[in-house]
Amino acid sequence: MVPLAEQFDLVIIGGGPGGYAAALYGASAGLRIAMVEKDKVGGTCLHRGCIPAKEFLETAAVHRHVSGAKEFGINVDQPTIDFGVSQARKQKIVDGLWKGLTGLVKSRKITTYEGTGSLGPDHVVTVRGSDGSTQQLQGTHVILAAGSVPRSIPGFDVDGRYVLTSDEVLMLDTLPRSVAVIGGGAIGCEFASMMADLGVQVTVLEALSKILPGCDGDVANVVVRSFQKRGMTIKTGVQVQGHQPGPDGTTVQLGDGSTVKVDQVIVSIGRRPYADLLDLHGTGVKVTDRGFVEVDEWCRTGEPGVYAIGDLIATPQLAHVGFAEAIMVVKDLLGEQPVPVDYGAVPWAIYCHPEVAFAGHSEESAKEAGYEVVVSKHQFRGNSRAQIIGETEGLVKIIAERRPDGTGGRILGVHMVGPWATEQLGQGYLAVNWEATAEEVAHFIQPHPTLSELFGESVLALTGRSLHA
Ligand code: FAD
Fold it and tell me: Which of 171, 188, 263, 403 could make a disulfide contact with 268, Cβ separation 3.0–4.6 Å?
């Protein structure tokens, strides 16, 4: 006999940023919540994504700073790397955050079920434990938040030895001497930058005509120049065909007949939604040809009362987008009529060196959308704080709607590349999302000397007058 399903206000499948944010936010609104997780609460972001990747990038930054200390009159020997220690430090941070998160989930009285969740008719979620046991839960509402896994590419079977994805790179104890990174998107560029700063010989192989395809052209060019200056090889417009392992590494074959010999290959061509284990038979939930769960603008699936959020749906695959969708969905199921997430104004942050951050239209996309624009561009090399910290590469670029007098009106997009760009974007993000004009934002005072003065200068210039620039 099938045991009676335990009843909840909300059952969530997946405990990544989307799932756990929905659980925490829902619990704070007084809902009785079950969260089903087959691996570890925290998901890709905490265990195999954002956090460990940024920790390694910080390790790379420390190496870069120590290597360049002589410029400041600090004489140190050329640093050496014990990547086992770096790996242990990363894991300590991940484990500490995981402990904190599981404690928080418990303290909010969220019931966590360890096992694989699948959805059948009538909002019934079956949980299969690794010991073969099954349990049934029923939610007045259900959220699918099963996330994503790395995409693979024919000819490159992931073996953990010659061919790695982000999952394997983040578990390395020793660094290769050379790598080919297949894919010049955000994650590929982060790994390329990190490896190069740690002394690995890096080749980036990108099928499109430029790396960082979603970024403003001027911004991407700064990253390309920096990568090349640091000894990386960037090949764009190339198709990879396969690879041939040998006694000393592996040889990657390219479509133009050339080859690249490296110790290891990192496949970084994006992530695919992971609906594989959700079953969904007998429900109205639909999955697209590309594997994404179909939703409307409030993340409602075709089955009334069932939502899907995060990397499982075709919206930007970012942890903070998952958070925003989780909050919106909980408000929706509470009947609070939330405003849908504005995907055009999401903040983007790429933590390669130099860092990239942006929100809103690029110059190209604003023009394509039919705007007449004014563009203000200022380089970090003219900024006092950038010179003090010795990081002068990069720029701030602001795109505004053109007023009849030629000055800038509403701010449509803010793009940054350079020191601490990911931390600096806040003001730009607010300006875009508040639909502020250049005149309004120029009124605000920037502290001196700071990197953020460059944003202030760029906005001021849009008003038709300026100080230093
Ligand atoms: P996930 O985090 O993938 O979580 C889904 C969870 O569901 C997993 O724990 C999985 O075990 C579980 N699950 C799946 N199926 C089932 C099932 N049937 N039953 C039970 N449990 C199940 N984003 C950023 O915003 N900033 C960054 O800097 C950033 N850096 C990244 C770096 C790397 C290397 C990678 C790989 C990703 C990065 N991301 C970053 C993306 C970010 O990690 C994802 O967007 C985010 O984790 C998606 O959250 P999610 O909850 O939708 O899915």
Answer: 188
